[in-house]
Amino acid sequence: MTTIARSTDTLTRDALTVLQPGFVGTTAPDWLLRRIGEGLTSVGLFGRNIATAAQLAALTAQLRSERDDVLVAIDEEGGDVTRLEVRTGSSFPGNLALGSVDDTDLTRAVAHELGRRLAACGVDLNWAPSADVNSNPDNPVIGVRSFGADPYLVARHTAAYIEGLQSAGVAACTKHFPGHGDTAVDSHHALPRIDVDLGTLHARELVPFRAAIAAGSKSVMSAHILLPALDPVRPATLSPRVLTGLLREELGYDGLIVTDAVEMQAIASTYGIERGSVLAIAAGADALCVGGGLADEDTVLRLRDALVAAVRAGELPESRLADAAARVRALASWTRQARGNVAVPGVEQEGTAPGTDIGLVAARRALRVTGTVVPLSAPPYVAAFTPVANIAVGDETPWGVAAELAARLPGTTTGTYGPSADPASVLAAAGGRRIVAVIRDEHRHPWMSSALDALLAARPDTAVIEMGVPQAVARGAVHVATRGAARVCGRAAAEVLSPTPPVT
């Protein structure tokens, strides 16, 4: 696979090839199209780039008008992390919901349908699934994005997800190697450190990644985490011991290695994005994800020039950059072939294609109901206790049950409460109506737990909907754990509280 670049043109094209940048807008800017013509092989899409399925299909067609083999990537996990349905909430529950059902056929079917929708819109690389074992329930960034805390459960569902996604012609990107589940720090903000021994790492974190490799995951995404047992100095994304020694040589992985976003503070505030990018490619990464936060031409040129300068200065072997670029092109070739081999129907509006109810089916099966359900007989007051969303999830995607309950019980109203929540204000707003308290990761937020205690003491008939990791003790007249905050999770919970058909 290795070829050695010998000309400036080839070197510059290779440097562009290993970048996976983002951009702003729902159409491709001129600078992006120009760089694609110069060798840029990948483009990353985020919620800001998507308005409708038809618009997304037009955007990807615009990108491919410059070169047919461009890799169009997206961060579409389903569940809490959605870009396709960033403004409405996802039609698919996330990993924790699927893991709790523990039906690999269901996980495979959900991933296939998600992949089918991506392929219909012209997206062919998905930065998913998360194969992290959520061994630390206080993890601020993984949580419901993980299939669970059991390494072998996570492994079998990771493999099923990869199989379902790739059978739709969309390449999987299993993340966050070698495992982000045992962290108490969000790598978007700082560099997490995991102090476990090698035995624990192999018995826990690496189990799902071995399964992913066996399932044929086309790519793997590295984590910006420090594991002293593997490398006491450099985070995994920048560590030859982790990317080359462990992933390539020990685990035998031969696919594309993609970094998590290099502008995340775990890299940007410690090494800087230029130096960090050079070190990542030198360590064994093949593609650099950038664009969630930095989404402009200047960033692309800075990283391109940093890689070229590092080769010329002898800091980055030219053959390593060429090898990385060759792996990117190989995946682009696979996705181009896959687009031709998989029958993809035309773009449809959400909810109209055959099989699109698979997400709701999964969300219903994932519910855990504790207590006695007394169906709502009148419009309730929904009190949404809302923590600050992590960057991966974002704060632009709606969540909760108010909209779904309002469709079933017109007149339903809602209020949003944060860390300064006063239960008395909730009671005053509710009046005589029954209260539905919506919470998310109660175990991680003492303010939320205190507010809920006070509310239940005053109104024991309150129904509680937990839409995060259901780690806290279930309480309330009825407690419904949805194991995720996707739109379909809210709908499934609303069906429990109000079994009557929605009003149309």
Please provide a brief summary of the model:
With 504 residues, the chain is an alpha/beta fold. The chain contains 17 helices and 14 strands.
Description:
- With 504 residues, this protein is of the alpha/beta class.
- The protein is built from 17 helices and 14 strands.
- It has helices spanning 8-17, 30-38, 53-64, 95-101, 104-120, 151-167, 198-214, 240-250, 265-268, 273-283, 297-312, 318-341, 358-366, 402-408, 423-430, 446-458, 487-497; strands at residues 19-20, 42-45, 71-74, 125-126, 171-177, 219-222, 256-259, 288-289, 368-371, 381-385, 413-417, 435-439, 463-466, 478-481.
- The protein has a six-stranded parallel sheet.
- Helix 3 links the parallel strand 2 (42-45) and strand 3.
- It starts with 7 loop residues before the first helix and ends in a 7-residue tail after the last helix.
- The model is unreliable at 1-8 and 349-355 (pLDDT under 50).
Write the layout of secondary structure elements.
Layout: H1 8-17, E1 19-20, H2 30-38, E2 42-45, H3 53-64, E3 71-74, H4 95-101, H5 104-120, E4 125-126, H6 151-167, E5 171-177, H7 198-214, E6 219-222, H8 240-250, E7 256-259, H9 265-268, H10 273-283, E8 288-289, H11 297-312, H12 318-341, H13 358-366, E9 368-371, E10 381-385, H14 402-408, E11 413-417, H15 423-430, E12 435-439, H16 446-458, E13 463-466, E14 478-481, H17 487-497
Parallel strand pairs: 1-8, 2-3, 3-4, 4-5, 5-6, 6-7, 10-11, 10-12, 12-13, 13-14
Antiparallel strand pairs: 9-14
Helix pairs in contact: 1-11, 1-12, 4-13, 5-6, 6-7, 10-11, 13-17, 14-17, 15-16
